[in-house]
Specification:
Elements lengths: L6 H22 L3 H20 L8 H46 L7 H19 L3 H12 L4 H8 L3 H27 L2
Helix pairs in contact: 1-2, 1-3, 2-3, 3-7, 4-7, 5-7
């Protein structure tokens, strides 16, 4: 198809190209959810482009694959940046989590008023940070870290692959580490 499609053609284009685009993206992106997000973004860009009569698409298939490749590159770049951030901050992040864990779960027989205040503050911040997460990330973090349920058991009962659960937990931990590091700097390092 070499002419600018009209709005009625978009549904046909999506039906025609979606399976091939999905396969193209899945070969390059291992996480199914990330691949789906990229596919949806490409299709959204198609709808937007069709509505833009000032900049028509001449070769639909080439345009779709170029947009998909760009989204994949952007995704991989962002992923590498996150991994680099985690690597650089890993030592400090582990210290932060360890210190906050001691505040939350310390075994003091009679905690001081300051310790009780810090505990309530950390729990409040933890709940706030958890509420910012997507439900599936929050759930896996709470089940494994707060309820102590093993990943394999969660995978068996939910039918979700262990690797998917690990990925969700990883993103939850990244978010929590970032959010709670601010609290750590404000309170424990002052």
């Amino acid at each position: 198809m070499n002419k600018q499609p009209d709005k009625q053609d978009v549904g046909k284009l999506i039906a025609e190209y979606q399976p091939r685009l999905k396969a193209f993206i899945r070969k390059r992106i291992s996480n199914r959810e990330d691949a789906e997000d990229i596919l949806q973004d490409v299709l959204y860009q198609l709808v937007k482009a069709v509505e833009n009569t000032f900049n028509p698409i001449v070769h639909i298939e080439a345009w779709l694959y170029r947009v998909a490749r760009n989204r994949i590159v952007n995704h991989e770049t962002k992923k590498r940046e996150e991994e680099l951030y985690v690597y650089q901050d890993e030592e400090n992040g582990e210290e932060i989590l360890s210190d906050l864990s001691n505040v939350l779960f310390g075994e003091e027989t009679s905690p001081s008023p300051e310790t009780e205040y810090l505990r309530s503050l950390v729990w409040t911040e933890l709940e706030n940070a958890l509420s910012e997460l997507p439900p599936e990330q929050r759930e896996i973090f709470e089940l494994t870290e707060l309820d102590g349920i093993p990943l394999k058991e969660i995978a068996r009962t939910t039918g979700v692959a262990v690797n998917t659960l690990l990925s969700r937990k990883h993103y939850a931990v990244l978010h929590l580490r970032k959010r709670l590091s601010l609290l750590y700097e404000d309170i424990l390092c002052s």
